[in-house]
TrEMBL record:
Coiled coil location: none
UniProt protein name: long-chain-fatty-acid--CoA ligase
Keyword Ligase belongs to the record: yes
Organism: Labrus bergylta (ballan wrasse)
Domain AMP-binding enzyme C-terminal residues, every copy: 501-576
GO molecular function, one term: long-chain fatty acid transmembrane transporter activity
Keywords assigned: Fatty acid metabolism, Ligase, Lipid metabolism, Lipid transport, Transport
EC numbers, comma separated: 6.2.1.3
Cell cycle listed as a keyword: no
Gene Ontology terms: biological process: long-chain fatty acid import into cell; medium-chain fatty acid transport
Family: Belongs to the ATP-dependent AMP-binding enzyme family.
Leading EC class: ligase
């Protein structure tokens, strides 16, 4: 059977290659035919024939990315150096267009502003490897700051501007930043934590402000700073640190994910080549530069796209919000060709494409720090990517089995991880190879968090792999669909919510009571709504007082949507909180006799969950 299968495929692929007269392709197809013969079965032949074109497209993209990357590695290039080459090619082309003010910065103007930032950083005495925290809402200045700092080897830490108090202090401390630049809109939040920052931390404010604040004005310094290139040669190379982006990950509090120069290039290059972008394309994004959602932009989304943008960036929530809006005339006049992002549900996908006439959806999967990113290169509805079924080891990722109770990876008798079969949910892992810029895992600013994301002996004895913490499913053709998040994180309102972080805040507000925070599914709603189970043994619980305290301590997306007051929270023998039963029971009243509350955001209060309210939420009559 193997010989028969191989013979059929060999004749088919050889004939196709001869027909288009490509000798190199003949060799490639012959090799694939031999592979089919080796794997041989009629089912495999059918899968190979259906996916061969897709896999060949992916191979082309990988080579377009990989070849320049190795050249840049050899030459020790950096992102600022590559940016300088772009400025030389397109000095007067628009680099950044800021819809809020109508500002347009050309590549030359952006470079001059970056040079001013670089001179300012040198004047402060900062050295390569020093860190400066950026705590600002999205604006062109943010790009000039991190890119200008990188010109002299200083690393930016991009802080989520929704963070407050302890979460903000944690992120600033994690980066070991020597200074913080913040916008005037963040002045109140900085004032709340100023006394808890390191005494020697320098604070710079950007934007209009009162001179009585006794803060260093960044804008004035940059205006006086030279606009020519700094007289300094950076010692960093393509594998060195560029900046930090914070992620809640799957193992606790927010972590500072390390982004090296090669990773930044890889992300941009894969997006460009995978989805057929052009050098003349304008990319429209209503996502803040630390990555989250600005809901108010939904109302002007298509109006902005009529003026600018052939490519839009999305997260699944944006697409759902747009579909929920009334039909507007501007929807029919946009120039959008490609939508790139992640989290687009299959049910929303087809309606979004049909209503807004989007020609191509570029769905992908990936975390800032991961080495197992996926790309849906051929527009398969519902898939976030694929892995070749013909040559599965070419891209060394795998879905492996795990325990439902605690998410630990299952092992076979030899001690290796057990791969999943098609259709079986599993944990996504990616083999680590630090000599390959596409396979390396740079981790986080703290080594302990990095260690927790690495598993030994996954593909073979002696290797190591990055553990994503996400559950996905692969079908027989290799298409991969996102299923769920495991661990201590869930997705809500376009943000990753760290359960450990929320548990710490809520526990502190309630006198250090035991608290379990987890996500619960609500029909028709993207992501999972946050729910907090609180060990409440007696005394009066005031929902209004609690809500006021939570609003001061947590960003809106991290505030518990549901509350459950119970005598005690289930724990293991080592006092780890067990959430499986709590998640299964959800927020339905009467199951346990526990008091349940629902955060009615429209009314601005927590309300007791009754059977009627429960049914209204489940059937969509009450919107979250």
């Amino acid at each position: 059977m193997n010989l028969l299968s191989g013979g059929v495929v060999l004749l088919s692929v050889w004939g196709a290659a001869q027909l288009i007269s490509l000798s190199w392709l003949c060799c490639l197809l012959t090799g694939l035919g031999l592979c089919v013969a080796w794997r041989g079965s009629w089912r495999f032949i059918r899968v190979a024939l259906c996916t061969f074109r897709r896999d060949l497209m992916c191979l082309y993209v990988i080579m377009r990315v990989r070849i320049p990357m190795f050249r840049y590695l050899r030459n020790r290039s950096t992102i600022p150096a590559l940016f300088a080459q772009t400025v030389t090619k397109y000095p007067d082309k628009a680099a950044l267009i800021y819809e809020a003010t109508g500002e347009v910065w050309t590549f030359r103007e952006l470079q001059q502003r970056c040079h001013a930032v670089a001179h300012w950083a040198r004047a402060q005495g900062w050295l390569e490897g020093d860190v400066v925290a950026l705590y600002m809402k999205s604006q062109p200045q943010v790009v000039a700051l991190w890119l200008g700092l990188a010109m002299v080897g200083v690393e930016a830490a991009l802080i989520n501007h929704n963070l407050r108090q302890q979460s903000l202090l944690h992120c600033v401390g994690m980066s070991r930043a020597r200074a913080m630049v913040f916008g005037t809109e963040m002045r109140g939040a900085v004032s709340e934590v100023r006394g808890s920052l390191q005494p020697d931390m320098l604070l710079f404010i950007s934007g209009e402000h009162d001179d009585k604040d006794e803060l260093c004005s960044l804008d004035g310094m940059l205006q006086r700073s030279p606009k020519h290139p700094p007289d300094y040669t950076v010692k960093k190379g393509f594998s060195d640190r560029l900046f930090y982006i914070y992620t809640s990950g799957t193992t606790g509090m927010p972590k500072a994910a390390i982004v090296v120069h090669s990773r930044y290039y890889r992300i941009a290059s894969f997006g460009f080549h995978s989805f057929g972008l052009h050098h003349d394309d304008i990319i429209y994004s209503c996502l803040p530069l630390y990555h989250s959602l600005l809901p108010e932009t939904v109302f002007t989304f298509w109006r902005d796209c009529c003026c600018q943008g052939q490519v839009i960036l999305y997260i699944g929530e944006i697409c759902r919000y747009l579909l929920a809006q009334p039909v507007r005339s501007s929807e029919a006049h946009h120039r959008v060709r490609v939508a790139i992002g992640n989290g687009l549900r299959p049910t929303v996908w087809e309606e979004f494409v049909r209503r807004f006439r989007i020609r191509q959806i570029g769905e992908f999967y990936g975390a800032t720090e991961c080495n197992c990113s996926l790309i849906n290169i051929d527009g398969k509805v519902g898939a976030c990517g694929f892995n070749s079924r013909i040559l599965p080891s070419f891209y060394p990722i795998r879905l492996v089995r795990m325990t439902e109770e605690n998410g630990e990876l299952l092992r076979d008798p030899q001690g290796l991880c057990v791969p999943c079969q098609p259709g079986e949910p599993g944990m996504l892992v990616g083999r680590i190879n630090h000599t390959d810029p596409l396979r390396r895992f740079d981790g986080y600013a703290d080594q302990e968090s990095t260690r927790k994301k690495i598993a030994p002996n996954v593909f073979k004895m002696g290797d190591s792999a990055y553990v994503s913490g996400d559950i996905l499913v692969m079908d027989e053709y290799g298409y991969i669909v996102f299923k769920d998040r495991s661990g201590d994180t869930f997705r809500w309102r376009g943000e990753n919510v760290s359960t450990t972080e929320v548990e710490g805040v809520v526990s502190g507000l309630l006198g250090h009571a035991d608290v379990a925070v987890y996500g619960v599914s609500v029909p028709g709603v993207e992501g999972k709504a946050g729910m907090a189970a609180v060990a409440h043994t007696g005394g009066q619980f005031d929902p209004e007082v609690f809500l006021t305290a939570v609003q001061k301590s947590l960003p809106s997306y991290a505030r518990p949507v549901f509350l459950r007051l119970m005598p005690s929270v289930d724990t293991t023998g080592t006092f780890k909180i067990q959430k499986t039963r709590l998640q299964r029971e959800g927020f339905k009243p009467g199951e346990s006799g526990d008091k349940m509350y629902f955060l009615n955001s429209r009314a601005g209060r927590y309300e007791a969950v009754t059977d009627e309210l429960y049914n209204d939420v489940m059937e969509g009559r009450v919107r979250l």
